[in-house]
Prior knowledge:
Helix content is 77%, strand content 0%. By secondary structure, the protein is mostly helical. It folds into two domains: 1-57, Homeodomain-like (Arc Repressor Mutant, subunit A), CATH 1.10.10.60; 66-203, Orthogonal Bundle (Tetracycline Repressor, domain 2), CATH 1.10.357.
Amino acid sequence: MTKPAPRPKTRIQRRNTGAILEAALEVFSAQGFRGATLDQIAEVAGLSKPNLLYYFASKEAIHLEVLTGLMDTWLAPLRALDAAGDPMEEILGYVRRKLEMSRDLPRESRLFANEILQGAPRMQPALAGDLKALVDEKAAVIRGWAEAGRIAPVDPHHLVFSIWALTQHYADFDVQVRAVLGEGHDPFAEAEPYLETLFRKLLAV
């Protein structure tokens, strides 16, 4: 017997689910998974705890839902790297997209970093699955460009790691960056030309 399709969510259900996930992002990125509580998430969402539990059975379920949505967002800039494009511009475009993501989605970056620092207990399958497969695919593209003499020889996986480190730092360590630079500085605007120069020199033939 075919299982009936689930009923579509009502407007109120969609609104409340969205409010819970937005609140969870705020709380988890600030407190980490262990420090966050259902009471905190419910308060930020403007819902009672019993109402929140109507939509999600546990803190773990909410956290997993937020991380699942985040993974799609996180992979999008790397997916956009085009094997048919100009190698230098494709790689620099990826650097810019990652820096923009750190500027525009700092909570998401910190949430991702917190999960990794805890050993990725809820994201390990995604890291070993979708993330690894995509990085391996794009690493093969970068390796092909290097072997064809279109960019300088470079270890493609460590190039990707370097891009992650040099862009996500501005979100994950925002307070430190701004404290060191002092007032009157825009870290992201200043970082972009520096990173472009750095990677152009690294990759130039």
